[in-house]
Structures are given as structure tokens and as C-alpha cells.
Amino acid sequence: MSHKFPVLIAGTLLTAAVVIGQQTPATRTPAAPASAGTSAKAPAPAATAKAPAAAKPWVTPRTPDGQPDLQGYWTNATYAPLERAPANVTANKLFFTKEEYDARVKQAALADEAQTTPGTTGDVHYDFTQFGLDKSQNPFAQDMRTSMITDPPDGRIPAQTAEGQKRGRDRTAAYRTAGGYNQVQDIVLGSRCIIYNPPPGPPMLPQGYNGNYQIIQSRDAVMILFEQIGDIRIIPLDNRPSPPLSVRNTMGISRGHWEGDTLVIETTNFDERPQGRNAALAGISDNFKLIERLKRTGEDTFDYEFTVSDPETFVKPWTASMPFTRIKGPIFEAACHEGNYGIEDTMKGARAADAAAAKKPGQ
Amino acid sequence: MHSWRRFTAFLAIAVIACLAIVMASIVSMAGQQTPAPAAATYRAPRTKDGKPDFNGIWQAMNNANWDIAPHNAERASLKIEAVIGALSAMPPGLGIVEGGVLPYLPAALKQRKENFEKRFAEDPEAKCYLPGVPRFIYMPFPFQIIQGTDHIAMVSEYKGALRDIYMNSTKKAPADSWMGWSNGKWDGETLVIDTTGFNDRSWFDRSGDFHSDALHVVERITAASPYHLNYEATIEDPQVFSKPFKISMPLYRRMEKNIELLEYRCVEYSEELIYGKYRKVPLQ
Q1: What ipTM was estimated for this complex?
Q2: CB pairs < 8 Å spanning A and B
């Protein structure tokens, strides 16, 4: 681990690249038969509840309004894969063994640490392990499942429509070729601090690092802060109708209600921009509907489940779940754009390169 | 029948007695409290834990974001006017500063004048930077108050900026920031917010009124009716001002049935100003 430039330069660029690199293979692997697996939801609690329940039953904490209390600081960091590996589908293997799981965590942590070759251009980067930002140095869920996807039961993202596949390919290609640096608008949104790559959702998928959230809750609204870029969702709980589809947000427009002790959030009115940067959702249409379910499961955990419905992209809806784990706050202000020296330097560098190329004899 | 009539008579007497008491108290209140503003007598509805309920979406209705001091309408510049016409002009305003004058130290006043000259390029709002405090409050955007248990969130539609107010906390800012570090407490009907830990980069308005990282803001917010809050703040910054000064304004509840904050990701609208000089091919 040799990191000579632990500075912010190109930090966001690199982070985006790392995250894409991690996630792309998930959708690249071939689809598997949809026969394996058991009940969609059964594995999640078993996986998250590491310690067996004590004799004293745990009671859902409540706000003064009587709602289940989701407030606090949380992370959805986990080493569980979104999709089940084909071999595990074939073997109908729903959980890693303790040994396999420990090896996975160790391997991922090593990969985080040793991402680059000393002395190469790739080594000029923002070393998040040195700042203790990587997952392995922070709380993460002990989730031993072989996939976060619970439905279809094979743990795989369902087949995509031709239209969805094309959208996904086009967006991935556009993302990969972005960065001509002729103008700032050529650079990807995450590096420009417009919205993080991959987006904080919804759905709130685990991040490469710093996947930290803060929830503040009143009688009629739930606020979820995502640490990166300080992005905020406000979910009204008063059953108001959604605005017309001509009004769209990058994070969609959410409506929440309580079903027993579960906060159910329905989100529509997405604009099409950020979804293309998340491999699992690369082909998603802007008409997709997302249902999220948040339910406290213990003093320091809640279960998060989401269902993606988008007939324009997936042949059927799919559902994934993951635990959120309590972390120690506070979450500090993320003034990303305000300190974005990376863009300034990148653009300056591009023009300097142009000037150098123009001066070169014989060109 | 007999008992019914007796009950009616009893009821009539009771009603008359009640009315008399109410009348008497109104008369005595009128006599005692003529100068008191109506706001002082308003008691806000309560949250379940007994605190005044400020939940909702609020917005200032003034031109303080252009200039917190009293000011006349003013031209931006002929050059800007040539492109967007009267959209570029500063509208007039009576300001929100008590006494009407900001008590600048001489060097700071000079800086303010320089800021004003460079305002269209240097105003943090033009660059879509976080608004700081108190500017957050009177930006021309709605903001939402979400009263949690240990935190009160204020979220502006501008940039989705967050003020996270730590209730009953004595924590200090771990580092300087744009929005500062806010500790809040309830003083009867009033939410008192003490904010420190600022950096020196935000401005108070589009006219270049500014502060240093020694800024200390104490805000007092009191409900004056179901539809408005009274807001006042004491601003202290010995590096910029010779003495503390006060600002005040009402904040109005946004009454639209469908009001909610939408996304205003202004970063992308600020980039040409900040990075345009690095274009390979300059804009025509």
C-alpha cells in the first residue's frame, strides 16, 4: 500500500470509477434459472440477527407520536452481494459459511487497501482507507446471505426487456466515455458534486464507502440525509397525492405511510439522469416505481427492503433487502461542490495538455 | 317535564354566568395589556412531547436576500441588462436590520464595497454554495422544519441545504463549516438557536455583506399565529462589526395544499461561472 498523494484531487472521479468497477460485474454475469431459493424474506432476519434474542423481548422504540423511531445515524454497509452468484444459484446456496464469509470480507478489505500500483498514474488518488473511510474500518452488517435480492427467489435480477437492455448499454457507454474535458459538462455528475455515483437512491444501495445516513422524523415527515454530497430526501406522511409527472426529481418524489410498524415509501416522478450510473439499475426507465419498507429489528438495526417495478425495463418486479446498522454520529457537513478543487484542476490540466500538444513540433 | 324545565333554567343561569366572567376578563385584559402585540399572547399548538409545533414549510417574504439593509432599486450593469433586461435589476427593500445600518468596522466596510462591485461573480449564491446563517432563512426559497426528538431539521429548497439543530446539546463544532454548528433549546414559546463554528465564506446577501469565521448567531423563533413565525437574530462578529446587531422578520407558512420542497440542484447552473474559463471552445 503505497499512497503518495492522499489528497482530494480527483477524489470524486476515482471514487466513481471504483464503485462502477465493483458493481458492473453484477449485471454482466449471465442470468440463471429462477428455480433456486426459498421464501423471499426468510433469510434476511436470520442473517442479520447474529446474536440470538435474549430472554427479554425487544420492544420497538417509538417517537412521542407513537411511530416506530427510525431516528439516528445509520449505515447500510454490507459485504453481501446484490445478486447471487450463478454457482450458488445452482447449488441452492442461500448463505455463505462463516469461513467463506470471513474470507470475503477480508478479501474485499484488502482490495480496498491495495487498489493501485505504486508509481503509476492510477496511484495518484484519494486514499479512503488511509482516512478510515472504507467499509472494513467502520460498522457494517454481518449479512451472510449470498444475495441481497430476495425476489425472484434465485436472487438474480430478472431478465430485461430489449428496450431496457439498450438503455442500460447506452448509459453505461455514455458514462464510460464521459470526461472529454472540453467543457465541465462533459464530466460525470458525481465528480461535479451534483449527485453521488452511484446515487443515494432511492433505492438506497450500499456504497463503496461512506454510505452513511441520518434520519430525523416528525409526525408528518421523515427526513433522510445521505452523507455524500449531503443529499436529502423528505418523505411526507400525510397521504398527499403525487404531483403531475411533468415534475420530476433526480431522487424522485416520495410518499410514506405506516403499515403497522413498517414505514412504507412509494417513490415515482424520477428524472432519468442518475439511474444510468448504477449498474443494477442501468436500464431503468424514468417511469419506474419504487416501494421501500423500513422496519426496526433491534436496538441498533432496521431492515430495509425495496421493490423495483418497471415493466419497461424488467420482465417482472424484483425485491432486495439489507440491514441498516447504527453508527456513531454526527455526520458532518459535506460541502462537496464548495471544495471541488478536483474539477478546477482537471479542467486546467486539460487546457494545459491542449497547449502542450499545440506546441509539439510536427503536429 | 318538571326536571327538564329546572335543568333549562340552570343552564341559562350557567351560560349567563360564564358570559359575565368572560366579558369581565376581556375588559380587564383590555385595560391591562393595551400595548402588548397580539403575537405575545399566541400559544402555538404542541407536539406530542409538549413543544411548540413549528413543523411545516415556511418562507420569508422580503428582499433581504438582495441586501439586508434598506436599499433602493438598482441596476446590475448595462452589460448584464443587455442580456436579461429588467430581470437583472435589484428590487428595493426596507431591509431587516434593526436601525437600518450594519455597524461595519472601517476595513470591513471597504471590503463590503469591494464585494458589492464583484457581486455577480463572487456571491456564493451565484456559485451555488451553501447559504450560511442567517441567509438560509430569507433565501427566496421555502424551507421545511422537521421537528425530531433530539434534532430539529431545517431543509431549504435552495440546494437542499440542511441545518441540523442539536437540541439540548452542548457539543461544539468539530470544525468550521458553511452552515455552522447549531445548538437549540426551547425557551417557553421560543426556539432559541445558538450557532457558531462558521467558516468565513458565506455572505448575508447579494450585495456583499459578509462576516468572518468569528461569526456568532443567536436566533429566536416564536410562533405568532398558525400562519406565521416571528424570527429575530442577533449577529455578532467582532472581526467585522463594531457591535452586535439585530435582524428580524416574519416567516410565513406556505399554505398551498400541495406545497413540498422540490430539488433545486443549482450546482450545474453555476458551473459556467466557475469553470467556463477552462472551456476548450469559449461560448459565443
Answers
A1: 0.85
A2: 131
